Amino acid sequence: MKKAIYPLAAFFVVVADQITKYMVRAHMQPGDRIPVIGDWMSIYYVQNTGTAFSMFEGNKIVTIVLTSILIIGCICYAVYEAKNGHSLIALLLTLIAAGGASNMIDRVSLGFVTDMISCGSFAVFNVADIFVTCSCVIMIILVIFMFKNGEEL
To answer: If DSSP codes are grouped into helix, strand and coil, which group holds residue 138?
Structure first.
């Protein structure tokens, strides 16, 4: 995989996430809800001062430090995996880091992360969260099937 794909993928994640967050902030007030699929799915503007599932809510320093450590760790491991020929794992780590970075932009500039996608009684999330979660799930599946008895397939 060409090296240019990593920064381009990260750029796409950050831009897509920041545009959707901007649109929500520009056209809605916190707590506003717009039904998309009946009562099951809606655009629901929430200002999240915590991390995933609102952990560490209201503690900006902890959320910034933890997120920074995870972003740096993902970037370092992505570089390592890319050098070892595991370009898909490197790409997934890049998407995770980009999602974390986009949420960090909100945390630092606004003091909260803009969340807006609500499905049933599940947590409210955003585009960056989708990339982080899907990339993690795909990476777990890959790691399970890439290694068998401690040896790479």
So the answer is: helix
pLDDT of 111 higher than 60: yes
> DSSP E strands: which ranges in 24-75?
33-37, 41-48
Q: Which member of 32, 39, 106, 129 is catalytic?
A: 129
Q: Is residue 32 among the annotated active site residues?
A: no
Closest residue by Cα to residue 82 from 6, 138, 152: 6
Total count of domains within the chain: 1
Specify whether 129 is catalytic: yes
Average model confidence (pLDDT) across the chain:
89
Q: Which of 17, 39, 106, 115 is catalytic?
A: 115
In whole angstroms, what is the distance from residue 104 CA to residue 111 CA?
9
**Residues 42-93 pLDDT 10s:** 999 999 886 665 565 666 777 788 889 999 999 999 999 999 988 999 999 9
Domain holding 53, by residue range, is 5-152
